[in-house]
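Example 3.
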Amino acid sequence: MIISTKHGTPQIEITKMVESFQSMGLRVSVITGTDYTVMGLVGDTTHLDEKRIRANPYVDKVQRVSEPYKLANRLFHQEDSIVSVRGIPVGGKEKLVVIGGPCSVEGKEQIINLAREVKEAGGHMLRGGAYKPRTSPYAFQGLGTEGILDMVEARRVTGLPIVSELMSADKIDEFEECVDLVQIGARNMQNFQLLKAVGRMTKPILLKRGLANTIEEWIMSAEYIMSAGNPNVIFCERGIRTFEKYTRNTLDLSVVPILKLKSHLPVIIDPSHATGDWRYVESMSLAAIAAGADGLIIEVHDHPESAWSDGAQSVRPDRFRTIIEKGRTIAQVIGRDM
Amino acid sequence: MIISTKHGTPQIEITKMVESFQSMGLRVSVITGTDYTVMGLVGDTTHLDEKRIRANPYVDKVQRVSEPYKLANRLFHQEDSIVSVRGIPVGGKEKLVVIGGPCSVEGKEQIINLAREVKEAGGHMLRGGAYKPRTSPYAFQGLGTEGILDMVEARRVTGLPIVSELMSADKIDEFEECVDLVQIGARNMQNFQLLKAVGRMTKPILLKRGLANTIEEWIMSAEYIMSAGNPNVIFCERGIRTFEKYTRNTLDLSVVPILKLKSHLPVIIDPSHATGDWRYVESMSLAAIAAGADGLIIEVHDHPESAWSDGAQSVRPDRFRTIIEKGRTIAQVIGRDM
Amino acid sequence: MIISTKHGTPQIEITKMVESFQSMGLRVSVITGTDYTVMGLVGDTTHLDEKRIRANPYVDKVQRVSEPYKLANRLFHQEDSIVSVRGIPVGGKEKLVVIGGPCSVEGKEQIINLAREVKEAGGHMLRGGAYKPRTSPYAFQGLGTEGILDMVEARRVTGLPIVSELMSADKIDEFEECVDLVQIGARNMQNFQLLKAVGRMTKPILLKRGLANTIEEWIMSAEYIMSAGNPNVIFCERGIRTFEKYTRNTLDLSVVPILKLKSHLPVIIDPSHATGDWRYVESMSLAAIAAGADGLIIEVHDHPESAWSDGAQSVRPDRFRTIIEKGRTIAQVIGRDM
Amino acid sequence: MIISTKHGTPQIEITKMVESFQSMGLRVSVITGTDYTVMGLVGDTTHLDEKRIRANPYVDKVQRVSEPYKLANRLFHQEDSIVSVRGIPVGGKEKLVVIGGPCSVEGKEQIINLAREVKEAGGHMLRGGAYKPRTSPYAFQGLGTEGILDMVEARRVTGLPIVSELMSADKIDEFEECVDLVQIGARNMQNFQLLKAVGRMTKPILLKRGLANTIEEWIMSAEYIMSAGNPNVIFCERGIRTFEKYTRNTLDLSVVPILKLKSHLPVIIDPSHATGDWRYVESMSLAAIAAGADGLIIEVHDHPESAWSDGAQSVRPDRFRTIIEKGRTIAQVIGRDM
């Protein structure tokens, strides 16, 4: 960590700071300029709080040289982490996974039929929301436990592992028992109490990126889960909020090479929520694969026009199959399979 | 609600849509253009889900004419709501309230001393964080229950009502018993399960704006709380994320006249978190008052340079007093007191 | 265009508005609700000014149903436009074009050497900046005319068409004479006087997207060029400003399917400026091709560490060759060549 | 400037960098950590190009300690600059200036009438657009030279100095001769050729902030003008683009204390373009004054509903008078006059 002081800082204040850092076991080198002084801290600064240092009125700027995350950091874990979801490996050089299914579970028959179609089209897991984060309290909030049980039934019939969003800690037992991959939604990416809670689960976590969060903040949220004891985190990019109006959000595919560089955890892409429009899902899926993603999560619906939520971004099963077929050829070009 | 269809939509599809809306008790007027058809829905459309309508492949655009909120909407509640916090009225033409205190409670002695200074300087309530939302799992997470009890003791000594942030539903009993104004932080503005839970509390709620949320989304979060039974919501603007680097966030003071127009609920301003720099707190406080805010929440610390969190944005008690004194004269210019 | 009025608008005001629109040759349908009235305008509304309509104090909302662009609109020009750059066709089902070269021309020898390497690696055109938009007046501003003449010499030696950025109208004669594809930079995307000026040129225009502009605004800037007489516009996405700090900008690949849907003009991708980091250029290039882009523009430098500008985002010629080779296989998967 | 290198950088590369900086006359101090090396540069680094340093593959991070601007920097010019506009002083402890007038000049009679009303209400200067930056090529583009001459006539009649926007260098002679305060619009804030050109004018420049630009970039644009020879720059905040939909832009009033700290130049506020809605103009004007701004620029129109552009954000002359009257009392509270 590098700290620079303001013009005119008295020597005594600098000495106080240096001694304070040394007392934390850090080595401090000091550069004295004409207008300012710079302190370079050497040692483990992960636990130092930048804001607290900035509170010193003589401090001008604070810059981390090391990243603030450890467990999720590739620097300390060179090989790719492979996360197993009910036996399906995700990450590394493994086959890309494709997760398909409706935004919301709408009933047992619907989800079983869709599960069958997802499987026949070549999908590997089934998604379906039972607890839905909705901007309006008057909108459909999901079927709750009933929806989870419908998903379990669909898994029994098809064998597909199931993925669903957890919105509050009081449902953790239900998810621990029933769900194979526990999704933390974009709006909860910095719900730190929930992150700590799922950090105590044994099931892998699908961590969506917040709508206006940086990649560093996202990795820090993975660090929350990992530091609570759960090493099995998969990142999921689902678009960020920008000024663009033709799409619901803006898909940021550069997260793929960046996460691969900074972290050892897998990353999958959600082109459905990112674009909010089924017409852009195929091209963004192929782009995600070419960029090196470890998988896709795509909304699939038999009758998008009558879906209970987010039908506009759902593709029909036949298009889902096409995406997988085209995607596989692209995956092979870059040395993966799907 | 106004719905326009795509070029080339068959008449039968339009008929189907019209009948579907009519079956929900809405009146539908149809405008037939050369390139498109427009349907105007007349009636209560609050419960209609825009996304579900957009899912129809023949639909091009959907626009609400009425706002999607009812309980928080000034249209249906013309007079200002006055929210009482342990007997102190907030909103309407009441005196502006000033809330002061540290970012984090650091111990009983500290918070009692600060409470005294806040009171002597002219402050009306005491803030202090016991549960802290921190980006890093390695940063100080707050004193927890101990911090809440220290606040309670500070209230006993000074009589100041206390304000603190609630981060998870499992602490609701503690807050219901001890805290006078329950803060929902920016990162939890769309933690819908938590909103529903505090909607069942009897204490008033201080609802901070999310870092990248629109005012409409913010009011919808108030609607969540109100529709669960708690009408006592105070909005708190604390800055939004922008590209600016000289401040931590960008304070959006235009929320004041907008919320006054759209809603009947009070609004207060947090210049400390918004700017992240104590040097800008005074001018932004005065600006907030001139804009018509119902109060301020300001971080105050005796020794900002050694605060356990956010010292850089804390003012010392003497400056806090100055802000209140200057602020009062501005409040009087626009017909309020403080 | 659909116009809704505020609650309580007198009938006489509505009549005035209707008559005013009718006098412009538009047909007006009126829907009268309990709380508001809606007017649907049928006819050519391209020339109507939304802001002017909003100025009417009785108007609540104005929504365009038709897009505000005509010449760039696929609705009125179904087939793909193919733009020829010194004989090389760009767009439609043509081969993808790859443009390579340094950020800045640094001298005749440098640019000729790089041009040779770009050509040998499989590139089709040469880029090089002679007039550089720099945030600081103290930074290198480009070689100016000398740089353009160096580019001309590189074209003479290699046969590669040349691409360079025009920053002001006083250099139009120079560019008309020397440059094959005239770039309008991101910061000038809404420099409307310059857009009009290049609309009178005979050379094709490479129109970069502004750092915080929507796709609609971008197409409107193409419309400026086209309406001044120049139909040969190629869009170039180069990343938008977001909160992310690990990249210079955020590459928005969803522009590819959107522009293909909304417009008939070609679109190419600049992964170098978008990411600002050569380590992410290859994956983003392959993703762009998979998404359906018509080409790439990539910064190439022999010695990035001593480049006069933007070395951090430049790839070396051998990596440029690799990108083209891998990219070609992906292009073929989606039915194109490169 | 502080430069940190990547993990594993060979000593020889560090030596090369150190020697390179020393050869530029800078003093270099080196801190050697376990994982990285830090170089602190002491001396004038204004002319150093950060991006060029980052291009070195061994460099990890580059951080400026000194600001990249000199002429606009308060560090080197402690006293406030007072900019004179046709004899009216702006900045320092001078009276606040209020500029009023229509978005667009619509004719001689209109502008003369409005100038009279602006003057009678207490305004000090007249604004009016003759060259209009419009997103659509089909929208009204301004009266051009005729509009400027109408403004000149309004000045002759009322004595009010005139303010108008310059969009291209080819009109500089016209503006030099006729206009008292030359506005550079938000979309041209980084039109560097235009900045250089107005830097050679003798008239003061009103520099609007770009829609998505940081304050540092804005000051750098002032630096462009100043370094070309024109020291008379006034900053004008007009709102930045955010996700908010209830306002056209988001007014950032924190620029006032920040610019006062970082620079010695005056700053005025444009609440009309910032909010895009006349209903929010009064409260934002009062807030701007309380924040310490040196003046206001407000759109005033006799008949907003029939204005040729931007009527929705224009106030009528009587409200303009009210704003000045209330504003004066607030100015006096903070020790200024208006």
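Chain B touches chain C through 23 residues (CB under 8 Å). Residues 317-333 of chain B form the longest helix (17 residues).
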